[in-house]
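Sample 1 of the test manifest.
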Amino acid sequence: MQSSDFLERDNDLAVLTSAYAQACELQGSLVLVIGEAGIGKTRFVRNFADTCPASTHILWGHCDPLTTPAPLAPLYDIARDTGPPLSDMLQTGTGSVVLFGALLEMLRNADQTTVLIIEDIHWADDATLDLIRYLSRRLEGTRALVIATLRNDEVTRHEALRFLLGNLTNSRVVKRIELERLSREAVASMAHGRIADTEALFAKTAGNPFYISEALANPAASIPSSVRDAVLARAASLSPEGCRLLDLVAVLGARVEYSFLERFSSYPVSALGECIGGGILVDAGASLLFRHELARDAVHDAIDPLARRLIYRDVLAEAVAAGLEQREKWAQLAHYAEGAADLDSLFRYSLSAATAAVSLGANREAAAHYAKVVEHSADRPASERATYLSAYADTCTTFQNLDEAIGAYREAARLWREAGDFLREGNALAALAWPLVRTGQNAEANAVTRDAIALVEPGGDSFALANAYRMQAHLYMLDRDRPGALEMGQKAISVSQRVGDKRTLAAAEMVIGAALLVDGDESGKSNLDRCQALAQAHLFDDLVALAYLNAGTAYGETYQFAKAEAELEPGIAFAEARDHLHSRDYMIAWLALCRMYQGRWTESSELAVDLLAQPNLAAVARITALVALARVRIRRGDPGAGVLLDEALALARRTTTLQRLAPVHAARAELAWLNGDAKSACREARTVLELAVGHRHRWHTGEFAYWIRRSGEAFVAPEWIAPPFRLQLNLDWRGAADAWKALGCPYEEARALAGGPVSARIEALERFDAMGAVPEAAQLRQALREEGARGIPKGQRTSTRSNPFGLTTREMEILNHLVGGLSNHRIGELLFISPKTVDHHVSSILGKLGAANRAEAAEIARTRGLNPTK
Amino acid sequence: MPRYLVERIFPDGLGLGPTPDGERIARTVAANNAEHGVTWIHSYVTPDKKQTFCIYEGPSPEAIRKTASKNGLPVEKISEVRMLDPYFHY
């Protein structure tokens, strides 16, 4: 059986060996080994591991099929191998990001190549999935090959796993191996001499190796109709003692230590030999395993439910006696307690498991444990149940299960009220506001925050009050209500200073800073700087990222792009390093938008396209990226802008906020106008005009006014709209052009010039041509022709077209020097550019000439008569 | 994948014909295209070689522009198109 199922794995094995070879050359990677249950993933990986040279460091971790998996179980396995510092850090309860960093350091500094295997990640907890994602993005430059096995038939049920796999799809350093079922021939050779009707065997088992091997264990009998039947048929041949022992081992779990098994004196442990001999159990040194998880599953499910519960009770008792509580194996104990229907124990262990999971960032697992706690706390006092519900809601919020969080916070608030604890009721309501905002229920969020404040205020200073004020300020800020945000923010600051709540203090400074900046008030920067300082000092990582985010986007929203860049670029790097993916994505989207306004269209579209290709992109980032890409397409006259903006509009409508709707409608107005549909342009511009005016948003109102007027409708814009738009509407084309130039917006600047006399319009046309702003250029050119203007530029751009290979003037210059055999450094000196820029041009030249190197390029230039010096 | 019609203007005339040079350029172009998921289907050229109309298959206008830039080819206008063949209607 052994050799034939490897025969068909040759190609797959080659993927692993080549990945290994690359890892030896500091090109680490992640390989996913995927296949259905019983396809032989473990056997395959084990076989590969055996082929690795002896110097390889092999680390092995497993994920277990507990009801709720224990956080970072595979890392614990690995730490047992590596010893300190990892093992010590796990002991002391270090946070997961630090743990991941330590593991990565270890992989980076290793002299030999490491193969790190994590099995069965379809059973992995959130923290382990984070570890895999963390590693997958940082393996280049290490000598590490990470292999993760998973069952593809389990993926659809598990959202976090789908999320991870989606993220990994786009990664260059992730490879996939999908193990296939065995062919007819392989089945035939496996069954050779043992079963006559190999065709029937193939048909029944469909080529699943485990199923086949189970069927072959009892060749005389007819082929069992399912894996389950096959396993049970094998088990049926055991003595009553053997069966009893098998049942016990099935309940105990995937891997059973002998030392633990020996404690079960009331069970026929002596029948072990029979079980191993029968091929159902396997001796793995210090522990005992079922031959396959499928077998354990089948045996476990086949035990009479009543009898099974009693076995779980015995197991739980022994587990406690063996000190699992001291070893803090809460998830495992909770699992046993559930099987034993021991609700008290389940309650206790779930509670401990939940806290442990939170500290390790296994949020989904924490929520699952808290859900059990809540379920089994019906007879406890209201205040206690409320505490659990709040904790449950907190964890649900962290992994975006917002509807659950909302329900739980509400219930918690109700219970706190019942218990007469107004402070905590207020806290729960304030916490409720945030998921309400995220699900677009801003009005409701406002209502509950006001209720929260009303409840908590009479009690004087408290953390709860500081938090409630801060939440209210945040809602005002999102609504672009400057006075409201400042007033509440100030209150939040005062209270949090008095009670010593550093976190709320930092968050409040951030809210005030954002509210001021978005209103064009530069003093907000000092608030944001204070927030940064506090957040960095107290290691509030998420707030550090948010401070960058709020500063960057506020500057972006007020067209101050240099300042926006100065926040967004470090912000993106920080968020990337600390795995704050939502913040990072939103900042990248805004950077794309800034680049678009700066006329750097190619850079903008590259950022946007990459971002939009990511699965699970948060709506706010998606809307912004769609708008950025759409604007680039609109301004270039490229197809595909409409479909982007339709999607953006659908997403923005769900939020009902000005912040999201305005940019979309402004872009739609521009698209309609350039498509010659003035009526639609006007309609789009008017859709959220009132909302913009109501919020006194100088930029959105300004752009809407611009499009309404350009569509030919009369409109009196408020005088507080942003200066460039105001000047434009006042027909001060020179003033407007200068204003746009000062902001670094070449397209808007050209548009302003186009409102001037002929000379200015010709200048504008040249600018449009140079930028590739085809629709505006075409309209302007047409208008100038109709007016009979003279000196209209012909519309041809730089000399990309002037030679057959399409080299630009600069590239021709550099090619000339290549012919002369100069180095990048020397060329840079001659042309006053950096060697890096020269290198960039050289790559382009090589690409265009189809040359493999500089010498070849020079040769082509010489022989083809490319006369570089013109 | 969508199809795009790309209009190009060569003021000095396109220097790409069935010559060794032309073959080399064509191969380089194809390789650069493949990297971005772009496939050059075929082109139409005016007799004076100053204008071309090229049909491409690709994921987005940005990919078309990227490969154009790499291949040193100008882009005048990109339109998304669908094929319409008289034979469909018989």
